[in-house]
Design goal:
By secondary structure, the chain is α/β, with parallel strands linked by helices. The protein has 6 helices and 25 strands. It has one domain: Metallo-dependent phosphatases (Purple Acid Phosphatase, chain A, domain 2, 4-Layer Sandwich). The strands form 7 sheets. Strands 3, 6, 9, 10, 19, 20, 21 and 22 form an 8-stranded mixed sheet that branches.
Length: about 375
């Protein structure tokens, strides 16, 4: 009898232990699996809510230069002071529309009147770094203004300042925020850069970046130029006889190839924003800063800073646009009248209809109905001075 009681007691203890183990496993699974729910906001945006880890916050601006040696901005070290409050992201990206070199032999002939070659002193790399820029693009039509010496000097100056460079042939730039690594794959319609006219090679480079970073950003220096080039045509575009690619086709191809975000400049004027397969495409941020480098007449006097937050897997979380205008010969300042946002809303609606990404009065990006995003995060507006 005692033996039978002991046997049943052992069996009962075994059952209890098994139940405890099952409960523990189920409980631990519910903790490690990120809870996912789907809700619809009043504006129709679908928000996928989960526990995001290591999101990445980035700021983007368009073309920048600080004059052309010897005609340099007299206050270069404080040139971005008026917009510094909007440049607060851990990762900040700009297009360097020129070189950082003391070389004197440019691509322009001595009697040329329609050729533009830009160079700033190599020490100006530290000015960009001090403003927060830690990723710089060189895929454009001015990176080789002073030949191979200018290219080499620019790369050396950027590296010495701790700035990641992207866009030269085969070159991918990298930046890390927390545990999230971001790859910047930059393109322009030239053989001296990652060439956007070579689509198979571009697809391969994006795929390569996808294996090396959690988040992939594509930048393109593409499209026609000038105040009349503010619309995305969906066609091949050209300027002064150059094939500047089909920006819309290339941007959408980039998303399909694995990019999480596409931003652009090159037209020197603002263009609209599109929501494509649950990813943001900003077709042109125009110019950002210059000192006599760029025209500031009409629409060319408007600029913007784009802030974007992505999850560690590249899902869009939030975005914000800060409108700028130029004063003097090209110095950016905040624009409280939000002219850039107003223009971009008009262009986005005209060019992309139901897929337009719009800017709210407070600067936050408004996505189309049905857009699926990660948990949204508020990007604060710059403090008013």
């Amino acid at each position: 009898m005692m033996r039978r009681v002991m046997v049943f007691g052992a069996l009962g203890l075994t059952v209890i232990l098994v139940l405890i183990l099952i409960t523990s496993f189920v409980g631990s699974s519910s903790k490690t699996a990120a809870p996912t729910t789907t809700t619809s906001t009043p504006k129709g945006t679908t928000t996928t809510t989960f526990a995001p880890s290591n999101p990445v916050i980035m700021s983007f601006v368009g073309d920048a230069d600080l004059g052309n040696t010897p005609a340099l901005a007299p206050n270069a070290s404080t040139y971005f002071a008026s917009v510094q409050s909007a440049l607060t992201a851990p990762i900040e990206f700009m297009n360097l529309e020129g070189t950082l070199t003391d070389a004197t032999g440019s691509k322009c002939g001595p009697s040329s009147t329609q050729c533009y070659a830009f160079h700033n002193p190599p020490a100006y790399a530290q000015i960009y770094k001090s403003a927060g820029f830690n990723v710089v693009n060189s895929a454009n039509n001015h990176s080789h203004d002073f030949g191979s010496q200018g290219v080499s000097d620019t790369s050396t100056a950027l590296s010495a300042a701790g700035i990641s460079q992207a866009g030269l042939p085969g070159q991918i730039g990298y930046a890390t925020e927390g545990k999230t690594k971001v790859a910047f794959v930059d393109f322009a319609p030239y053989s001296t850069a990652n060439n956007l006219l070579d689509v198979p090679a571009a697809q391969a480079l994006i795929a390569q970046a996808k294996t090396q970073a959690q988040v992939v950003v594509v930048y393109m220096h593409a499209g026609a130029e000038g105040s009349s080039a503010d619309h995305v045509t969906g066609q091949e575009e050209s300027y002064v006889g150059e094939d500047r690619g089909n920006p819309q086709a290339f941007a959408q191809m980039s998303i399909d190839a694995g990019a999480d975000l596409v931003v652009a400049s090159g037209p020197h004027v603002l263009r609209g924003m599109q929501w494509y397969h649950n990813h943001l495409i900003a077709y042109s941020l125009g110019n950002f800063a210059g000192y006599g480098n760029f025209s500031t007449s009409g629409l060319l006097n408007l600029s913007a800073i784009l802030n974007v937050t992505l999850s560690s897997t590249g899902q869009f979380m939030a975005g914000r646009l800060t409108s700028l205008v130029f004063q003097g010969q090209g110095q950016p300042v905040l624009d409280s009248t939000n002219q850039a946002a107003t223009l971009m809303n008009t262009l986005s609606t005209a060019d992309f209809g139901a897929n337009a990404v719009l800017v709210a009065p407070n600067g936050q990006l408004q996505l189309p109905a049905g857009a699926v995003v990660a948990t949204t995060t508020t990007i604060k507006a710059p403090k008013k001075k």
